[in-house]
Amino acid sequence: MADLQERLKSVIEEIENKIENKDTLEFVKTQIYNLSLIFLDEIDRVSEINVKKMEDLADKYREINDRVEDIEDTVKNIEKDIYMQEDEDGEFDLEIVCPYCNNEFIADFSEELKDEIICPECNNVIELDWNKEEHNCGCCGCEGHSEDGCSGCNEDNNKDNNDDNEDM
């Protein structure tokens, strides 16, 4: 801003050196002053608009940040519900609902996942399904499927394909 004032002062000094008529000089100086006020007012107006926009952006950022935090909290809660969380001792806590008596209890598992657990309320054995990679499709009595499909079916299909090829 100091540079602007110096430049304005320099322009006015040049005008004073060139214009000899006092009335004309005063008129030109007043008009330059008025023009500079117009520019300064416009700069102030643009600055106020920018400040308002920045405040609006900051409000929107806070609002979005609050929403993201809410979503993160929800996701963490969903993860707790879906996945077992390991505690400091290397054990996993799993909430189980007994299918026989509807008793809800927490079961602690260490490194080994058990296939069954006993309900502390009704003492019935509850089988736990961990959705292991075992797959029995019922199509061939095989124990599971590889990436290529059913191992039993592939053997049968290979035999059928070989038989078809021999007939040709």
SSE map:
Elements lengths: L1 H17 L3 H61 L2 E2 L5 E6 L6 E6 L6 E3 L6 E3 L17 E2 L2 E2 H17 L1
Antiparallel strand pairs: 1-2, 2-3, 4-5, 6-7
Nearest-angstrom radius of gyration?
A: 41 Å
Largest sheet: number of strands, sense, barrel closure = 3 strands, antiparallel
Ends: how far apart? 95 Å
State the helicity in percent bands. Answer: 55-70%
Write a structural description.
By secondary structure, this protein is of the alpha+beta class. It folds into three domains: 2-82; 96-132, no CATH class; 136-168. The chain is built from three helices and seven strands, in the order ααβββββββα. It has helices at 2-18, 22-82, 151-167, and strands at residues 85-86, 92-97, 104-109, 116-118, 125-127, 145-146, 149-150. Strand 2 (92-97) and strand 3 (104-109) form a beta hairpin. The longest helix has 61 residues, at 22-82. The model is unreliable at 154-162 (pLDDT under 50).
In short, what is this structure?
The chain has 168 residues and is α+β, with helices and mostly antiparallel strands. It has helices at residues 2-18, 22-82, 151-167, and strands at 85-86, 92-97, 104-109, 116-118, 125-127, 145-146, 149-150. The protein has three domains: 2-82; 96-132, no CATH class; 136-168.
Labels describing this entry:
about 170 residues; 3 helices; 7 strands; alpha+beta; 3-stranded antiparallel beta sheet; about 55% helix
